[in-house]
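[job 0412] stage=complex_fold ligand=adenosine-5'-triphosphate status=START
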Amino acid sequence: MSGTDEPLLRVEGLTKHFSNDEGLFGGFKRNPDGMVPPVVHEPELVRAVEDVSFDIRKGETLGLVGESGCGKSTLARNILQLIKPTDGTVYFKGEDITAMGGESLRKKRREMQLIFQDPQSSLDPRMKVGQIVEEPMEAHGMLDDEGREVRAKELLAKVGLDPQHYNRYPHAFSGGQRQRVNLARALSVNPDFIVCDEPVSALDVSIQAQVLNTMKELQEEFDLTYLFIAHDLSVIRHISDRVAVMYLGQLVELADKEELYENPQHPYTRALLDSIPVPDPRSSGVRGVLEGDVPSPIDPPSGCRFRTRCPELIAPEEYDLSATEWEETRAFMRAIDRRTVETNDPEELRRRFFGQVPSGEAGTVVETALDHLEREEWEEAADLLVAEFAEKSICAREVPAYEITPEYGSDTHYAACHLHRDEGIRLDPKTGERADGVRTADSGTEASESASAVSDD
Ligand SMILES: Nc1ncnc2c1ncn2[C@@H]1O[C@H](COP(=O)(O)OP(=O)(O)OP(=O)(O)O)[C@@H](O)[C@H]1O
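[job 0412] stage=complex_fold status=DONE, emitting structure tokens
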């Protein structure tokens, strides 16, 4: 099932900030040595999700992928209004559900269900499977006792379980079977939309495919729309029609599945795809391919959040650097910033990093940094290089959001990367609409201007 063009769900500029003011020591920080008081209470904001916009079409599966901690679950809980967003809007069947509360939201929730990762802990061990499946129907006043029992047994059969197991307890089931119970429970209230948050991650690989196949069959039969969250790209590929990639609270790429896997256009997506685990126990996965650590969502990088780890950071326009000079300068900046070199001898550093130190202003910056290093002023050298080269890049100055021409199929391809500033259509990162105000064919009116005429460079 690949869905229609009609969006079932529209997410616009969704943002969620948490205060880290929770728990006994939440928000308390140690003051630098000697300062009074020794501890201060300064809660900070965890920018878990920032300006995320996308649609999910009726009948499709949108896969959402990203490393642990990038905000996938927070986004899911915001979409379902289990937690209220800090900003932004979620439209379900055209209605703004962020503005809803109380009984109207409770009613809406029947149409939007959630399946969690851990089938062990999401099923109450004291309840029989039949009761578990019937509970949501009871909560929403659906059917009478007898009717619910009949429906629960039917659903158990639909998800591939024996209806005779209606009176068994969850502990009698395997992990895969428990996840099937969860599916039956979610389906019991006849929803249109199911958020599946890592539903097969806790299962053996051999079981995963079976559960995914059942989910696909159920989607077909019950006309379901899925938001399918996983960190595993092979699982996402198996189930999705389109795929969204998330990094540090933001969407970096969204495209048709084939387009995303065959023609990835964001350096982060490419790094993730390069790190799909091969059957080698020594393979270290994503972190082996990407340099550096994921920055803190308390103080995320400006502009493109991936820029501090991006192998394709764009050179500042004010320096006239060749590709080789920029590559060498970046390697030098990284090494000094991360202190991965021992020597501070300018001659040695010039030889190690540069074929020839760039001429002009960029060269002056490099030479000034080398002077600092000669005086053992590592921090000054690193700060200067980062301020002059990293922070002046367009990647640090502007939030990227572009629509680019897909190579596979005609579906839109969104890439939040300034490498597309020349050929892409600049979008408003908050609404996902064209930044020049011209409405796209999707939004009802014609867009006849060429992409290059509206690109923002
Ligand atoms: N209640 C909360 N208070 C403060 N910070 C939070 C809270 N919930 C989540 N976060 C932070 O928000 C960020 C996103 O977390 P989230 O659980 O949404 O990521 P995820 O991609 O779903 O990760 P995982 O796959 O590990 O579940 C993390 O930095 C997390 O520590």
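The CA atoms of residues 27 and 43 lie 4 Å apart.
[job 0412] exit 0
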